[in-house]
Please model this.
Amino acid sequence: QVQLVESGGGLVQPGGSLRLSCVASGSIFSINTMGWYRQAPGKPRELVATIRSGGSTNYADSVKGRFTISRDNAKNTVYLQMNSLKPEDTAVYYCNADVVARGTAYYTHYWGQGTQVTVSS
Model:
């Protein structure tokens, strides 16, 4: 079994910064893409950023230049540095990862439980 646990959410004023972390643990053989998605009330879940095991990244247009995704492959951890936060960034942020579990030969998509980010004065 594989678990993803996020941390680092909270309340921040507009223009502020937060850093989210997500650790994958369990019976892991390898991890390919890791990423962050978010879901605001009444809206569908949307892509924020992804990063592949080799380091290539992809960002939603709405966060380009403000957010930075990174990962530590040795620690099975992905980070999201969020700067210049805006009220419209308020959402529950979810981590995901494409994991090959030990004893298998295919990727399974896992999700974390989510962490709330609120941007408000």
User: Anything to note?
Assistant: The chain has a mean pLDDT of 97. The two ends are 40 Å apart (CA to CA). Residues 21 and 79 are 5 Å apart (CA to CA). The longest strand covers residues 28-39.
